[in-house]
């Protein structure tokens, strides 16, 4: 039985872009090949593509205008997979109803916004693209990255791989990026259109911008659009995943999807343009009793860069000779008091995290159990909801659904869960962008399995 659903197709011919540059950044090809095989075995029902490949996407018309294959990707920060069953998101659900919907999309570790948006953009794990957390230290550069400081974080030296908005430009298509993390980095190839991050921008305005782009003449119109939407995450952090404010944010972003869908229908584009709805990670409550106060055991002033109140604590010591002591102290404290975290030397981090081999990953990493945070006595708890845990934790699950000419349209097609490193190739194939074999950490080549 054929267990793979073909979302798109393979294009033949010349490669339009140089995918070798910046790919295997840290010479980890061997370990990656191994884990690719393991994951392929675990996740894909039937890795053999046993049906003929469909034709490449073709130019479509809405009656008056020709449209090149086009895709709009909306990412809802912090939209946990089970939020969709709450009855607040009819527009979002309708995309899946008329196309495909995954039970959930699995984020990458750490389940934070910057690493995961750049993973969705590049098809690479954080350990491959280099944005290994929202804040981290690079021992080679001797500098730290901080997602809140644009002057620092947009320097191209931080951003590896090739995001889809660059792939589009390199292959003579056009891209438009609205606030998607990584889209502002000052890499040599820039998206054709770009809207800078501004937290006060209403989500409806972002939808208007997308529609304005669609109204441009064909030779100026972006074919790949990536839109970042923050409301649900903000409400989840401040009020918690079950709060009324979080429901309100769901209604707000769902209304915006309605605006976009109306705009597409008015232009006769609902069967012409592909729409992909995704999220980066979920959200979970934390309480003071779920805090692990690491300053009860170690002296925080010995640490190099602390991002406190996170599910994971990257540990580097100002004096490298103290690292071993700190590791052992935390490990024995954990064992003695049966604390809800694990501490690893970087080579001990379980392979399923795909979090290894990058110099930006700290030599010692403590990872709290889902629902618990690593924090200090003097920090208190400033938020209600948190994310960043184990990417396989149920509370961290993200969403994926899609509709449009590149997807089956005979009713809701339910897909097996898959990892977000697959997204790059799914996007690429909907618009006929070519991806070299092995250029991403995905294992499905743009195909996504459905239940066997
Ligand atoms: C691709 O990039 C690599 C590394 O920058 C370079 O050595 C190679 O010549 C390039 N290949 C093509 C086809 O441009
Ligand atoms: C087709 O799309 C173009 C560009 O958005 C729009 O100006 C035009 O009105 C649309 N045509 C129809 C028949 O809706």
From TrEMBL:
Keywords, ordered alphabetically: Signal
Keyword Zinc listed: no
Residues of the signal peptide: 1-16
GO MF term (any one): nucleoside triphosphate diphosphatase activity
A GO BP entry: nucleoside triphosphate metabolic process
Pfam families named in the record: Phosphodiest
Top-rank lineage group of the source organism: Eukaryota
InterPro entries per the UniProt record, alphabetical: Alkaline_phosphatase_core_sf, Phosphodiest/P_Trfase
Ribosomal protein as UniProt keyword: no
PANTHER family with a match to the protein in the record: BIS(5'-ADENOSYL)-TRIPHOSPHATASE (PTHR10151:SF120), ECTONUCLEOTIDE PYROPHOSPHATASE/PHOSPHODIESTERASE (PTHR10151)
Name of the featured protein: Uncharacterized protein
Natural source organism: Mortierella alpina (Oleaginous fungus)
